[in-house]
Amino acid sequence: MKKSTAKGGNNNPFKNYQQKKVTGRETAIQNYLKVLRRTRAKYEYVTDLAKAVAEQLTLVEGKACDHSTLLRNPSYKALLLNFLAGTPGLAARNEQLNPVAEAHLHAVTLDVGNLKKDNERLRAYIFDLEAKADAAQATPVLTIESRQPEEVERQVLTLENNLGISSKALWLVLEHYKDLLAVDRERNCIIDLAALRQKNVIVDAATAAPFMEWLRKNANVG
Q1: I need a labelling partner for 90 at 20 to 30 A (CA). Which of 3, 23, 164, 219 fits?
Q2: Nearest-angstrom CA–CA distance, 59 and 6
Q3: Do residues 201 and 187 make contact, with C-beta atoms less than 8 angstroms apart?
Q4: pLDDT digits (tens, 9 = 90+) for 120-167
Q5: DSSP-based three-state secondary structure for 52
Q6: Closest Cα to residue 156, out of 136, 135, 138, 132?
Q7: Using one digit for the tens of pLDDT, what is the confidence trace for 158-172?
Q8: Is the per-residue pLDDT at 88 higher than 60?
């Protein structure tokens, strides 16, 4: 138990602070975008919208915010693209896909990233259980501490369920945009059907691995 606590101490001590900062900024962006919708402001390019939002965040946060920061962050960019998607008659000329598809792609990428993290946590639990099983076999007398805790079993089951639900959600998004997006089973990645093969990978094989594994085990999904 002490070793487990020690490992937990290596976690990023600023994680909660960073998460609160991201959440707060997302709220500020959403509030400003609501104002822009009410005033019917129009932006032809996502870069121009990002610059306007960055200026507003600079005022709200009291320190400079560069528009490139908003474009690099998938969550922030998804909010901007969703705003553009709601502007009648507007096409995102500097994007390969239309804003709606692009926003969903960012959401998909985030979901896949979460799947990857859940998969890593699940593997860590399984490794821990295997280690305890090996220790139990090496111990002549089976003690209470060496038995598999019910809490760990519940946590493993929860992770497996979350992985399945998230994977099904991602599959539904891909099915909805099947004219734009597809699963490349040869390269084990998610691709943009409108792009050339050399540049059509949206979610690479490493990131999509948990979803592809789920897809193989659920060939009859739907």
Answers
A1: 23
A2: 41
A3: yes
A4: 777 777 777 777 777 666 655 444 444 456 777 777 777 777 777 888
A5: helix
A6: 132
A7: 777 777 788 888 888
A8: no
Nearest of 160, 208, 163, 169 to residue 185 by alpha carbon = 208
Read off the amino acid at residue 199.
K
Q: Measure CA of the first residue to CA of the last residue in the chain; give whole Å.
A: 43
Rounded to 5°, the CA angle 115-104-37 comes to: 135
Token pair 């019917």 in the structure block, residue: 40
For 1, the token pair is 């138990």
CB 83 within 8 A of CB 36: yes
Are the C-beta atoms of residues 87 and 37 closer than 8 Å to each other? no
Which of 27, 28, 32 is closest to 49 using CA atoms? 32
Kindly state the average pLDDT of the residues 203-216.
87
Distance between CA atoms of 30 and 27, rounded to whole angstroms?
5
Confidence of residue 92 (pLDDT cuts 50, 70, 90): very low
User: Would you state the pLDDT for residue 11?
Assistant: 58
Per the DSSP assignment, residues forming a β-bridge with 191 are: 182, 201
pTM exceeding the 0.90 threshold for the entire prediction: no
Segment 38-61, tens digit of pLDDT: 888 888 888 999 999 999 999 988
Helix (H, G, I), strand (E, B) or coil at 184: strand
Any residues with CB less than 8 A from the CB of 213 and at least 6 apart, and which? 119
